Amino acid sequence: MTNIKDIGGLMDVLLSIKPKFAEAIIDGRKRYEFRKIKFANKDINRVCIYATSPVKKIIGVFKISNIIEDRPHALWDRLKDHAGISEEEFFNYFSNSEKGFALEIKDVEKFENPIDPNALIPNFVPPQSFYYIKDTINLLGDQIEFESLRARGRISGL
């Protein structure tokens, strides 16, 4: 098992997601996460799911198997069966956008004990969309690694 701190050039991303969509990712109903902008850094190790208010916790992680770039209508036509979002919510989100991105989700791990980033990161401010967490990897890394191992049944809780 590679420890998050030993990954080198790879980074994790902290992604803000509304709780209903975060839960849909966790339970497998949502297999794509849609975004208006793509990551500038293509070396993403995994995505940390930050469920926004009222949850305000990192509830799990997933990996990205593919990023699909297209016009919103084409994304919807192609991915709607696994979008985990209503057509109305999708097009409201992409209103006035000529391009969209779909993160194809794989290897989802739900944390038994969601992580409160406020307890680990002084003055934590949730991202509007996402941010890279290489700079906070030492703060989050051990906790995320612990929860990741627990989610796979490799260790039991304390």
Textual characterization of the structure:
With 158 residues, the protein is α+β, with helices and mostly antiparallel strands. The protein contains five helices and six strands. The protein has helices spanning 19-26, 72-79, 87-93, 117-120, 137-151; strands at residues 11-17, 32-35, 44-51, 57-70, 100-115, 130-132. Strands 2-5-4-3-1-6 form a six-stranded mixed sheet. The protein starts with 10 loop residues before the first strand and ends in a 7-residue tail after the last helix. Mean pLDDT is 82; it is low at 1-8, 135-139 and 148-158.
- State the share of residues found in helices, binned by percent: 25-40%
Quaternary state reads: single chain
Structural class: alpha+beta
**Shape, please?**
globular
Average pLDDT metric? 82
Strand count, sense and closure of the main sheet? Answer: 6 strands, mixed
Number of strands: 6
> N-to-C SSE series?
EHEEEHHEHEH
Radius of gyration: 16 Å
The number of helical runs is: 5
Residues in β-strands, percent: 25-35%
What distance separates the N and C termini? 21 Å
Q: Give the low-pLDDT segments.
A: 1-8, 135-139, 148-158
With strands numbered from the N-terminus, the spatial order across the biggest sheet is 2-5-4-3-1-6
